Structures are given as structure tokens and as C-alpha cells.
Amino acid sequence: MASAPEPICDVLIIGAGVSGLACALALAEAGRGVRVIDAGRVGGGSSHGNCGTITPSHAPPLAAPGMALRALSMMLTPDAPLYIRPRVDPALWRWLWALRGRCNPRHWQESARAKAALLRDSRDRLEAWIERYALDCEFAPSGEDYVFRDPRAFERGQHELALLRELGIGVDVLDGRAYEAAEPAMRPGVAGAIRFDGDAALRPDRYVAELARAARERGVAIDEHRPLVALAQDANGTVVDTTSGPLRARDVVVAAGAWSPRLARTQGLGWLARTIQPGKGYSITYDPPSRVPRRPLVLRERAVCVTAWASGYRLGSTMEFSGYDEGLDERRLGALERGAAEYLREPVGPRVRERWFGWRPMSLDDVPLIGAVPGRAGLWLATGHGMMGVGMSAGTGQLLADLMTGATPAIDPTPYRPDRFAR
């Protein structure tokens, strides 16, 4: 016989990653009672091992004009920056076919504008949160540089700058020789660089831990290692069955990241399962080498992100569509080190601390789903952030809290409404 649900909670959030905890903190500040559950530990998903850059500069979406052909050309190259593992996976191929339809200038600009609005709001809000909540996460308003070694790639990389400037993102284009002179960590041969002074960086695992601390201090309960089993709605709200017994909630927020499609299937939300695919990323964390870049870098031709903190040094990035495969692919980790070695005098640190992979929730338009689930009273989404979960976290938390409490949002919520896919 099933045990009776615990006393009703006001808001139950499924997922203790960066998005779920940011929502918990914002909702607690808005006066809601919040509980968070997670199948694992706080920040144990894609929040843990990314490069920790806060990047309004990354507004352009994955589905750019010409991307479909480039992706197909890399299918037989396992260490390519974008890799689609050949296999029978009807859900993935349907998703890729729908993504192909968005690789045009109109959709590219629509998604870029939506991402830029949330990234800018979140960048400003994050700095305010760090001060307000005393978040100890090695935050630095460092800016970020895109570095090129191929002159043709450098020229192509400037094609999107007009749109970024129109969106209010500050951009400087730097000569290669001048850049080398100012950045002693670089090897000779830089063709040029693009600088984004408005970007920032932090230590992502520390940031997530600090969000959890700040949320707990404001009354949020966080249950780790409490997997969700099922959701069922009735006239009094939602009963959430977990491996540690059922809970009842007035409102439920799904912030399950790349696991959202699996949860969606159990709820009959086929449209949500079709909207998001897990995109696998990799990183390697080291003790810092003696010469590290002055600011975070994206080594553009190799799509390698380089971040240095006082406490560590990380190479990361890549995008692999291989479902929920749990293998740590040595070829893709090796590609990070080989790519860094083309650009940096000391590409790796003296000791490896961690070799990591995680899944990002990639939506069809590369824009997150934030808001009410159509036709399901009391059910909300904060998922689909792709590679921008950390950078969009503070803005996502505040936007969802505003929508759930009836406050006026700081940004237009329309581009993030889940019902844009619910048909």
C-alpha cells in the first residue's frame, strides 16, 4: 500500500542544477515556499564541468545557415567539434530534420534576439546576486576573446558582429600581431581576435554550491538522491511520487535539463520530448600551468573553450549527439588538448584533476522553455538552455518567479513560452 503524501508544499522543483536552484532562490525571495528534489546531488549534471563563462556574446544559435551540411560532413570524424554518432535513433533524426528547417537567416536572427535578451538580463542580474548573496564562486568581469589562426576563418567570424552590435553587445576586432604581443600565453601565428568585454567568468561548481547555500538560508529544502518516479494531477494539485515516498505540491517546476525529454514521455507531453535532445559536452580540469591566458578564450577553429581561475584551469566544449551514452570518449578529450596545443604555449596543466562529460538540453531553436505547460495547471518548465545554462541562470530564475507570482517580468517572456512547441 502506497504511503500518504507528505504535507503539501507550495512549489516543488525537479532538478538541483543551476537552473533549478536559481529558480528556487528567486521564488523564495518572492515569498513562495520551495522544495527541490534531485535524482543525484546538487550540481551533479551539466552545471558541474562546463567552462563557467557568462557570455552575452554567445547569442547566435547552433542552427546557423549552412550548419546542416557542416554537421553531416563531420559525421565520420569522431573528434570533430560537432559530432553526430551514426546509429538508429528515430527521435534524434526527427529532431535533426526539424533543426535543419531552422538553418536560415530569419530563424537564426529570431533565436539570437531571444537568447541575447535573456543573456544580457542574466549577466547583469548575476553580478547583483553575487553581491547580494555573497556568492563565493571566483566571479570575474573578465570579458572573453575569440581567437583565430586562419585568416579566412577570422573573416567569416566577423559576419555576425553587426547583429551582435545591434543587440547591444560590445565587440572589438583585434589585429593578430598586436594580440600576440598583449597575450604572452599565445603561440605565434594568430590571425586576429574578437573581444567581448561584457562577458564574465566564474567557477561553475562553486556557483551552484553557493546557490544551494543561499537558497537553504532562505528556507528552501533540498532533497538529494531522491529520484522522481511519477507525477499525477488531481483537483488539489500534483502528487509527485519519488523513491523516498510521495510529495504533494501546488506548483511543480521541471528543471531537469537534458533529462526533461524522458520525464516528458511519462507525462504524455510528446511535444516536449520532440523538442529537446541531449547534447554531450566534455571538459578536462588541471592544476594551472605557469602561463595562462589573461581572460577566457574560445579557440574558434577548434571550438575549444579555455578558462583559468585562481583554483584551476579547464579546457572544454564540443557537441556530440549520441543519446545518453555514458562513455568517456578519449578521442574527444584528446581533441581538446590537441586543439589547445595549436594556440597556447602551455596548453595543459601539470596535473589532471578531472576528465568529465555531461549532457546539455538542446532545444530546437536553441532558446530555453520558461513558463507554464499548456493544458497542465500548476506545471511549469525551466529547461532547454543548451550550452547557456550557467549564463542564463539568474535571468531564468527571476523570469519564472515573476511569471509564477504575477509580477511584471524584466524581459518579454514571449520568446521562451513552452507553448511555441506544443502542437
Characterise this structure.
The chain has 423 residues and is an alpha/beta fold. It has a single domain (9-420), classed as FAD/NAD(P)-binding domain (3-Layer(bba) Sandwich). Helix content is 33%, strand content 25%. It has 13 helices and 19 strands. It has helices at residues 18-29, 46-49, 67-73, 90-100, 105-133, 151-157, 161-166, 176-182, 204-217, 260-266, 270-275, 330-343, 389-405, and strands at residues 9-14, 34-37, 53-54, 82-84, 144-148, 172-175, 192-196, 200-201, 221-223, 228-234, 237-242, 247-254, 276-286, 297-299, 304-309, 312-321, 352-363, 369-372, 379-383. The strands form 3 sheets. Strands 4, 5, 6, 7, 13, 14, 15, 16 and 17 form a 9-stranded mixed β-sheet that branches. Strands 1, 2, 9, 10, 11, 12, 18 and 19 form an 8-stranded mixed β-sheet that branches. Strands 3-8 form a two-stranded antiparallel ribbon. α1 runs parallel beside α13 (389-405) and α5 packs across α13. The longest helix is centred in the N-terminal third of the chain and has 29 residues, at 105-133. The protein is globular. The two termini are 38 Å apart.
Instruction: Give the biggest beta sheet.
Output: 9 strands, mixed
C-alpha Rg (nearest Å): 21 Å
Instruction: Give the strand content.
Output: 25-35%
CATH class: Alpha Beta
What is the total tally of β strands? Answer: 19
- Please state the structural category: alpha/beta
Number of domains: 1
Number of helices: 13
Shape, principal axes of CA atoms: globular
Q: List low-confidence stretches.
A: none
CATH-derived topology: FAD/NAD(P)-binding domain
How far is the first residue's CA from the last residue's CA? 38 Å
CATH architecture: 3-Layer(bba) Sandwich
What average pLDDT do the residues reach?
A: 93
